[in-house]
Amino acid sequence: MNPPTDDSDRPSGRRTAVSRGAPLYEQVARKLRNDIAAGVLRDGERLPSTRELAEQWDVSVFTINQAMQTLAEEGLVISKDRAARVVHAPGQTRQPAPQLATPRVIAIGGFAGSGKTELARILARDTAWPILDKDTLTRPVVEAALEALGQSPNDRESDVYLEQIRPREYECLVAAMVENLQCGKSAILAAPFIKEFANPAWTSRLEATCADLGASLHIVWVHCDPGTMHTYVRHRGAARDAAKLANWATYLTSVDTHFRPPVVHTVIDNCSTGEPLREQAKRLLASVGEPVAAVR
Description:
By secondary structure, the protein is an alpha/beta fold.
């Protein structure tokens, strides 16, 4: 039987605006599990205290304790002296898989907070392929360009951003991919790709670009329910998400959770009740013909 999901006793004294489709502790446990698999949380790393985690996640200490219990039962978190909790992931150090003759490109798309970056990191740790994340590659320049155009550096909604800035971000992403392929290296792309994946002509051009460089393209869509996305977006605290969080209900009207790319693709289920992201990543790599790196 699942524990209650009521979080009215959280430090802020208010209920969290997330879906009740899955208990909050499961949402927190899944994010921490993904961070361990992605190497964001390292083996032996001491976790913040229960109260500190409760404040970070804006949930109750009860919710954090339930999440920690779940992770402890999975062997991912152990207790040390004075009730400190540490990450237990001795298999994090992996031998990179051998480079294949035909480079692969895995393009990962999804809505904000769906878990694209976590999936990309897990794949990169198993393959030693570079991660080409749109935000990481372009954010400082995008913010400067928006300010020069009289917009907020955190603007991601205006016509100025959508028409003048956003297309250039994807040009940079594809250009970085091409440079890696020209060197015979596979690559993992991470970006929303919402408009791009909805356009078969765009994906066909990307596939042709990859083929011209002797590579194969694999489209991946990360599915996540709105409640879990809200938890992830709120927790990461990025300034660019402020408008979404301030008007979450309005933002959700633009989110089609049933969207799937109208081309051949793989769906990764990152809902809080879904299979661990690590296991889905293994199957994804097997499907593209890439052996998973061996644990040392």
